[in-house]
Specification:
The complex is a heterodimer of chains A (191) and B (403).
Chain A (H helix, E strand, L loop, with lengths): L6 E6 L3 E6 L11 E4 L5 E12 L13 H7 L7 E14 L2 E3 L12 E4 L2 H8 L3 H8 L5 H15 L4 H14 L4 H12 L1
Chain B lengths: L3 H35 L4 H10 L26 E11 L10 E12 L6 E9 L2 H4 E4 L2 E4 L2 H25 L4 E6 L12 H20 L4 E5 L6 H10 L11 H8 L21 H8 L9 E2 L13 E7 L4 E7 H4 L2 H17 L5 H10 L3 H17 L8 H7 L4
Parallel strand pairs in B: 1-6, 6-7
Antiparallel strand pairs in B: 1-2, 2-3, 4-5, 7-10, 8-9, 9-10
Helix pairs in contact in B: 1-8, 2-6, 4-5
Classes of the chains: A alpha+beta (191), B alpha+beta (403).
Chain lengths: 191, 403
Amino acid sequence: MDKDYIGEVIESSTGDFLAECLELNSSPPFGSFVKVAGRSPTIGLVFSVSTHSIEPNRRPTAYGKTEEELRLEQPQIFELLKTEFRALITGYIDTTGAHPFLPPQPPRIHSFFHPCDADEVRMFTDTSDSLRAIMNAPRLPTDDLLIASVRGAWMAHNRDTAYLVTMGKDLSRLIRDDYDRLSSIIRRIAQ
Amino acid sequence: MLDLSAVKRQIDRMASDQKRIQNDFFERIDLSVHEARGWSDDWKALSHDVDVSRTSWLVARLSGPPDAACPAPPRPRQLTVIAADGSQIFPDRHEISSCYLLNIGYVVLHYGTGERPTLSSRPFLYYREEDLYEEWEGRRTAVTRESVGIRRGALEFTFLADLSVKAREEGRSVVGLSDGTLILWSLEGRPPDLRAATLRTYLDAFEQMRQARVPVAGYISSPGSADVINALRVGLCPEEPTNCDRCPYKTDRRERPPEIDRGPAPLPCSPIEGVTDDLLFARLLKPGERSGVFRSQSRILNDYGPHRIGFFYLHTGAEIARVEVPQWVADDPELLDLTHACAVDQAEKGKGYPIVLSEAHEKAVVRGADRDLFYKFLRDTFVQNDIRAEISLKSLKKLAATV
């Protein structure tokens, strides 16, 4: 039994998966990489986080109290909410190494996941493949996800300026037909 | 199929009847308030009249003025409130097995500590011969919905007592709440051995809680009871002692020619008949206040020993609720205050109904879809194990009705 996991997959498909976090409000950050445990661990990029009622017919209502007051006086609330996130599948790891493309099988339901460590992040962000995956996936907050993932990858590369320049060049190739958009993205990455 | 147009005509008639009754009703409530206040100083005389009366209705025994109102004491900052509630899949002989299922939802909420609460449920499947048939007074019969309900209620209290004792052992201040009455009047007239066995479970649970000093209370929302009104009706009765079996006013009525005898009987106790206790206390209590403690005279309580049930009415701010407690809670001001403060706080937190009870219900409830899934599991498992799995033609017909 894996003790360090922070949640598990509850919906899975070829391109993305939905995961439930073990603790409320403890999703891995937007734009960060997670690794789903399995024979061939899948790598996902978090692109949507939500917290809501565990039961579809019960909606949270306003109480006019702080979270601390609610934890003391309405403790049941926090058992009736859950935090979920969706992740774009950007690659997988098998015995032959890391692959920056979709795995033959999606992660299994109820598989556990962890945040990727810096080595794993570097493994999947050395090239612009993950940027291309973000650009090509439908229904994503594409620009913000590019910004967050490049900033995260830059941290994993120890704030290496050369890495940032390479990513900037790759982005300019990917978004070469829209100068305004490209400059906005690069400006925000650098902030 | 329901003929809605036929029902609508009956609803219209019902509404017009209700309207007529309603106007007269407000006067009755005014009178009952007047009566309750009228006995405030001389409540011992009324109490005596009640104690010696023989009535055909259930009359509350008094332990103080009927119009007494006690403000809510403050709730201890740290308090653990526990509830257990049950739900079931009744035995269905049209299904592949007559087994049945009880699901007990239980909730432990710790206030003032920030600890995580427990909200959970546990199912119990009953399928053995001794589960499906019961023998009382030498008669063996298949379990009925009623007996499943009795077993469920007993299991709820076993959970409530176990959880309460455990929380108490952890050094907490605890209140145990249950949805509905603690008075098992439905056992009256049932075989003595069934009655004794059921009561034993309940009373054992009460005893465990008594020893742990955990007040247990039955919370009744929208109570329809009129025990206190009935006590005031005894007060209206000129007879000493009141004895409904020998009511001279009823006799007079019978002797009257039928063409004169129209409308309700003009008995001395009639003017407040039909009023319920909640309507009376809605006028006597302010939000947060409770009435004095009354003692129920249900016959079944003669078997309750030290756990005889008393009750008070509580203005939750949203309604008048009836809260039933065993005698040892009623007699202990500390436990009574704790129950009162807890019930008010719970109703406030739950926006009118104790949050711990509604959460226990949510955990217990077995919905239609769960029931269907349960029988699907059962069928699949039977088939996988080569057990004959057959449902009745009636069930089959319900699944696919033809024209």
